[in-house]
Amino acid sequence: MAAHERRLRRRAVLAAGVLAGTALLGTTAGRAEALPGTDGAAATARPHAALPAPTGPYAVGTATRHLVDAARRDPWKPESGDREVMVGLFYPADGGGRGRTAPHMDAASAGHFGAAGGAAEANYRVRAGAADWAATRTHARVDVPVARGARSLPVVLYSAGLGDPRTWNTGLAEELASRGYVVVTVDHTYDSSEVSFPGGRLVESVLPALAEDPRTGPSEIDAALRRSLAARVGDTRFVLDALGGDAGWRRAMPRGLADAMDLRRVGMAGHSMGGLTAAQTMLEDRRVRAGVNMDGQMAFPLPDASGSALSGAAREGVDRPFLLMGSEGPGAAENRASWTSFRRHSRGWNAELTMAGSRHAAYTDAASLLPALSRRGALSGDDLRETLGTVRPERAVATTRAYVVAFFDRFLKGRDGGLLDGRSARFPEVRMSGGA
């Protein structure tokens, strides 16, 4: 889970003796850029990182869109009006060089992400101002047409960890898009570290202030985590509604994309709180046919009125395919009770895998970006190991991509390469149970 969630849960531990959560992370280096406001010749160089290229047969397109849910007041700040979210779309695109390549984060978001107290520092141990987050590019071109002849493309929704932006698994989104999926990443406003809206508005997360407020006790922590989950599920279901029914938004999509999506084949993946969001959304919305939880705890700090701290998804399970992908980090054991309950109550295909030597952030862009930044001094080697673990970063990236793609290929496309059947010589770092 994100460090904001870890701090909230840790405070609940200290105050009420309930279980804490795990840690988060990350980034990378490359070409040097001058610090803002300095003379270029004398400037201190700031590193940035490169995301690994997607490996599928398609070029990748991307679009960013603003959506307003007129049927729902904002759950964090009702006085602000209707709920607004930003989404990113990644999709198979026409080849060729048309269109500009998208940044990993827009400039305003990157500046906030990397500033003192921002998510790069708080979640990933990257020193404030030590990296040029705005310089990292994706491999996706903006608003280009969908791939010629693309039809009936499955849709995968993605939800990031608590306090992380929707961009913090762009490498995985691009990989899926390059293999014939439309991926929709959702920013959960006031939860995501920052959300950049049209017109230059930058909305910051409310979570850091809550985590640091000395008046915050166990009940406030528990309420915030439950509010986050409810808001995230509401956001996801609203985005699904918009994908299928908002004629204006569909017309504003890149050419051919609206008609190419197959909303009968929808999956969802998420990291940390986003993984719980995937499971809870599946419990509440049958449009989501398959889900992946990457190292997300499925319980809350305090019991509810029923006496259980388990989420609804963990208590009831789901009746469609679900994959749990775990780490070996310090908080990994805290997933086990909720994961065991989830699997015991699930009626669909389900499996659990563990990536040896990994920590919580190994399932995010941290695995791609942090190592090079560490080599350039933006975070220490010890901090790098605390965030990623001892797994080789390139193996973490390859493992995450391979298993997520194999899962959705099997359950959304009906293509089974056998990777989910058990131990694989290609991925000796993975231990797997279930799935038979």
UniProtKB/TrEMBL annotation:
Coiled coil: none annotated. One of its GO terms (biological process) is lipid catabolic process. Residues 37-57 are annotated as: Disordered. Keywords: Hydrolase, Lipid degradation, Lipid metabolism. It comes from the Bacteria. One of its GO terms (molecular function) is 1-alkyl-2-acetylglycerophosphocholine esterase activity. InterPro entries: AB_hydrolase_fold, TAT_signal. Residues 37-53 have a biased composition (Low complexity). It holds the Pfam family PAF-AH_p_II. This is Esterase. It comes from Streptomyces albireticuli.
